[in-house]
Design brief:
Blueprint lengths: L1 H24 L9 E2 L4 E4 L5 H18 L5 E3 L14 E4 L5 H11 L6 E6 L3 E6 L2 H16 L8 E2 L6 E5 L4 E3 L5 E11 L11 E7 L10 E6 L5 E6 L7 E6 L7 E11 L12 E9 L7 E8 L7 E9 L6 E9 L4 E8 L8 E7 L9 E4 L7 E9 L5 E8 L6 E6 L13 E2 L8 E2 L3 E5 L7 E5 L2 E2 L11 E4 L7 E3 L18 E4 L5 E6 L2 E2 L5 E2 L1 E9 L4
Parallel strand pairs: 2-3, 2-4, 4-6
Antiparallel strand pairs: 1-7, 5-6, 5-8, 9-10, 10-37, 11-12, 12-13, 13-14, 15-16, 16-17, 17-18, 19-20, 20-21, 21-22, 23-24, 24-25, 25-26, 27-30, 28-29, 29-31, 31-32, 33-34, 34-37, 35-36
Helix pairs in contact: 2-4
Length: about 550
């Protein structure tokens, strides 16, 4: 009995030890935190908007860029005489006919906020769905940024696991485009306004610069505008546009008896030119004599070497006649390759043309080149005018101008890679309009920033819709992500009304922060009562693209 008991005890001990050893060496299964999407297909509803179709195309492109997974896109159409096969691995975008899309839509419907979207993962589906096209677009961007951009390159995975489900609500004051570039309004402020809302007169034609070549003063904002014959007000902001104060009033002390009236333009020298150092502030504007018939106008330059506090009148770029044959609307731009400062402007003085676009250049701010044409139409009755020029990363300059003489004074863009060669002067480029025909006319401004899409962002603004619509709303803002080949329209960030004799929206202005991520947009909406006066408002818009 003793031997049998001992043997039994030994066998029990061995069993217990073996069991203990098995417990010590057994490993728990590793929880999957990524999902292989290499075998998935992107599926969209068979009937959907062109905007969502374009957005899905960009979604596919970014998925490939971030994960290395090259997925096909197909619609959810199927032969209704056959049973719908839902066994495939799919990324479902929008309200598809798949069962899991319907289930996700029910969950989303339970939320009261219209700015919501859902992302849900089942065994073989990923659902990305918003309550409308805008929120679906935001859901796709959210998916890319949070789950695709965060994985290893060429992993062909996303940072999601089966069973994941989340509902998000969008709260920011922003616009999102089909390429996922986003415009978010971050500030509205008044630059300057008449003392009374019942005043008679106009505050218009604002321009602005952010100092970049003035050492400790860099980042300061300076602005000017038209506000009568008392001189050009110089407004300053040291808190990036939140508050403003007037620091100077610029008058013409070169042309005896002339008044500073119209079309001021601010510019900061990016390099030394002649006797003037990098960081010198230049104001170019149109002066006129005080004679009763107003028979002389000039393009005159003023300089400040102390960040806009005091000014000196230094030269006339050109001089011509009065209202019917004068010189107007100067625009300055420096070209590194030629080391020239160019002054573009509108010229009424040629009897062969009602108006044409011309320029001169200087290398010392004392002497100027002979006058050269960039747009002079074959039809002498046409009046191209109000130049602004933006340099883009493809090496092209885009020049926007109005074409008075065509109904509504539509806006055109003409391009060149050389400021001294605009091709045939009778060629006035292409009209600025969307594929749907949305466009505008009069008082244009254009500018370009590297922020946004792969080609950066070209923005063009103007005064009124073309043709004049049955509305009192001002012009849209047009955006291009392909160097001005195509445009999309958004509501004007500074809403204003258009009346028969209103000056609202006359010559809006676009400029950017040094890194291009902040758009400073200025315009003159109505201040007070209809037909009374306008004030200058600033809107700051943060621009972010997928790779910003």
């Amino acid at each position: 009995m003793t031997f049998k008991r001992a043997l039994a005890f030994m066998l029990l001990a061995v069993t217990v030890l073996a069991s203990f050893a098995a417990c010590k060496t057994e490993e728990k299964p590793v929880e999957e935190t990524t999902l292989d999407i290499s075998g998935y297909t992107i599926v969209k509803p068979d009937i959907t908007s062109n905007d969502i179709t374009e957005t899905i195309s960009n979604f596919k492109k970014y998925l490939l860029s971030y994960t290395g997974a090259e997925l096909k896109v197909s619609s959810d159409w199927y032969n209704p005489t056959q049973t719908l096969d839902e066994s495939g691995y799919e990324i479902l975008v929008g309200n598809t006919n798949r069962t899991v899309s319907a289930d996700a839509a029910k969950e989303l419907e339970a939320t009261e906020d219209e700015n919501s979207f859902i992302i849900k993962v089942t065994d073989n589906k990923i659902v990305i769905l918003g309550k409308n096209d805008d929120t679906t677009r935001r859901a796709l961007k959210y998916f890319l940024v949070n789950y695709a951009k965060t994985v290893e390159e060429n992993s062909k995975t996303v940072n999601l696991k089966k069973g994941h489900s989340e509902i998000k609500t969008v709260t920011s004051d922003s616009i999102i485009f089909n390429n996922f570039t986003e415009f978010e309004t971050i500030l509205r402020s008044t630059v300057t306004a008449p003392e009374s809302k019942w005043a008679i007169g106009t505050y218009e034609y604002p321009t602005m610069i952010q100092l970049r070549h003035n050492g400790k003063h860099n980042g300061t904002l300076l602005s000017t505008l038209e506000s009568g014959d008392a001189g050009y007000r110089i407004m300053k902001s040291t808190d990036d546009g939140v508050t403003w104060k007037q620091i100077a009033s610029v008058k013409d002390y070169l042309n005896n008896g002339y008044v500073t009236t119209w079309m001021p333009f601010l510019y900061e020298l990016p390099v030394d030119i002649g006797d003037y150092k990098e960081g010198t502030i230049i104001l170019a504007a149109t002066s006129r004599n005080k004679s009763s018939d107003f028979d002389i106008s000039t393009i005159t330059l003023y300089v400040s070497t102390n960040q806009g506090r005091s000014w000196k009148t230094i030269c006339n770029v050109d001089k011509a006649g009065g209202l019917s044959w004068g010189v107007w609307e100067p625009f300055l731009i420096y070209e590194e390759s030629t080391e020239r400062l160019y002054c573009f402007y509108s010229d009424d003085s040629d009897p062969k043309h009602d108006q044409k676009l011309v320029y001169k250049y200087t290398t010392d701010l004392k002497t100027w080149s002979e006058l050269k044409e960039c747009v002079a139409c074959d039809d002498p009755a046409l009046r191209p005018g109000m130049i602004s020029i933006a340099k883009m990363s493809n090496g092209e300059y885009a020049m926007a101008f109005e074409m008075v003489g065509i109904s509504g004074a539509p806006i055109y863009i003409k391009k060149t890679k050389n400021l001294d060669d605009w091709g045939p002067v009778s060629d006035y480029g292409q009209p600025v309009k969307t594929a749907e025909g949305i466009t505008f006319g009069s008082a244009p401004w254009c500018n370009w920033t590297p922020a946004g899409g792969e080609c950066g962002t070209l923005i063009v603004v103007g005064k009124h819709p073309v043709p004049y619509a049955n509305t009192e709303e001002g012009a849209k803002m047009l955006i291009s992500f392909d160097y001005g080949k195509t445009y999309v329209a958004i509501d004007n960030p500074i809403p204003y009304a258009i009346y028969s004799d209103s000056r609202c929206g006359y010559s809006p202005h676009l400029s950017f922060s040094e890194d291009g991520s902040i758009l400073y947009y200025m315009n003159n909406p109505e201040y007070g009562v209809k037909y009374s006066c306008e004030y200058i408002e600033l809107v700051k818009i943060k621009i972010t693209g997928m790779d910003d």
